[in-house]
Amino acid sequence: MILAIVLVIAAIVALGTILRLATIQHLQVSRERAGQVGSIRPIDIEAFRNLVDSAEDEYLRRRLSPTEFRVVRRTRLRAMAAYVQAVGENAAVLVRVGELALASGDPRIAGASQQLVNDALLLRRNATVALARIYFALAWPYSSFAAVRVADRYERLSGSAMLLGRLQNPAVAVRLSAPRAR
Amino acid sequence: MLQPHSLLWHYLWIGPQVLQAALVVFLWRSGLHRTYPVFLTYLAFGATEGFILYGMDVLPWVSAQMFWEAFCVGAVIEGIIKFCVVGELFFQLLRSRPTLAKVGSRLISGAGASLILLAVAVAAYTPIVHRQAVLMSRAHILLQSSYVIDCGLALFLFLFAAHFKLVWDHRAFGIAVGLGIVWCEHMAGWALSANGVLHDKSYLLDFLNMATFHVCVLIWFYFLLVPHKVTTTSAVSLPENNLDIWNRELERLLQQ
Fold first, then answer.
1. What pLDDT score was predicted for residue A151?
2. Given CA atoms B184, B190, B193, B195 in this order, what sign does their dihedral have?
3. How far apart are CA B77 and CA B70, in angstroms?
């Protein structure tokens, strides 16, 4: 009896999730037909690099007491997670931008779009993995991980988006990363 | 009206099978069998199985033992075909996105393996509720486990597509939505049947299962045969506001 109830609840949750995701997809397609793809948040890639710099972590580890280090490290990890989430969301928007641009008849734009889609999907995947590792590190602040790949991939993606933007509208340059704050 | 062998019961058993058979013919004529060969096989097998089981149910000389044996054989074959349908939908989703092919195939293999283990565990913990008809109980447990896997895989497909913001092809989307609805409902329905929750009123679940399947066949008709609006083929430019910001920042960067 308990097993049946558990399975029924699981089925209702699964059905609700499927219907919700299907509705979101339907609305997304409708918005895209109206030319609304979504917006991209500029990201300060240097600030992110600073956050993921292992030398910085090592320096803090040496200078601070273990308790202080854990607090600081967790704060930095939360900031890192916010950056990675924004990167992942930008990548998701660029997947759609690239896929819509793929329909263009111009082979140069189609090529740049394919490159953008590939880079954005890779970045989305890496952002997911990086986010999982950040949350893991939040539980164990002394563990180390490499989120640097996300930063590298993001720079590559920025290049792909710039190329596509130039091909679509040669008069306007496109960039994804915000410059360092002065 | 909601009694076994009532007019509604006959309609709900036979009606969707007739529609499935008609859909197979329409898909074949429109050339969609080349794009969705496994789904076409699923429809054709489902219709054939439905007609055979219906015939076995109404013919007086067919014993209950024979009926449930045929039911189990059909469920096993259909289970294998359903696995292949999920694979076909996943292939359709990743066909133009080779970047995700490797990680996608690993994830779906992992999800499939985990769901099989879960289904085995669920089957092991389900009691035999009909002591006088053990084969019927086993058939219910088999279907309960089968739909645990199917429902999980359907959910995985939607979560994967949503996470990577992948947009389904219109027809694949319709197939996936229909399968998702029917598999989730069937999982709940067969779980209640297998655990004997409704006792002597369990035929009500048959009505629910058959009605849901009927609705899903109509969904497939709509998505597969009704022409849909073609998405704009002009290239979409990046949002204007962001372009301005990026341009300004780029100029500043170049002046450094």
1. 59
2. negative
3. 11
At A15 the three-state DSSP class reads helix
- Supply the pLDDT for residue A163: 61
> Nearest 5°: CA angle at A115, between A112 and A121?
140
Of B204 and A32, more confident: B204
Task: Encode pLDDT of A115-146 as tens digits.
Answer: 778 877 887 887 787 788 788 888 876 665 54
Which residues 6+ apart lie within 8 Å of B73 measured at CB? none
CB A21 within 8 A of CB B168: no
CA angle (B105, B163, B182) in 5-degree steps: 75
Within 10 Å of residue B155's Cβ, how many Cβ atoms?
A: 23
H or E stretch covering B69: helix B64-94
CB pairs under 8 A between A and B: 174
Looking at per-residue confidence, does A160 or A171 come out higher? A160
Write out residues in chain B with pLDDT < 50, as ranges.
233, 238-256
Contacts of A95 in chain B (CB under 8 A): 164-166
Q: 10 Å Cβ neighbour count for A15?
A: 21
Closest CB from A3, A101, A161 relative to B235: A101
Q: Which residues of A169-180 are buried (b: 16+ CB within 10 A; e: fewer)?
A: eeebbbbbbbbe
Range of the domain at B181: 7-255
Instruction: Flag whether B1 is in a domain.
Output: no
- Report chain A residues whose CB lies below 8 A from the CB of B95: none
**3-state class (DSSP) for residue B236:** coil
pTM score of the predicted model: 0.81
The ipTM is 0.86
Residues in Cβ contact with B234 at an 8 Å cutoff, skipping those fewer than 6 apart? A103, A104
In a domain, B2, yes or no: no
- Asked if residue B90 is part of any domain, the answer here is yes
Cβ proximity of B167 and A96 under 8 Å: yes
Radius of gyration of chain A from its Cα atoms, rounded to whole angstroms:
20
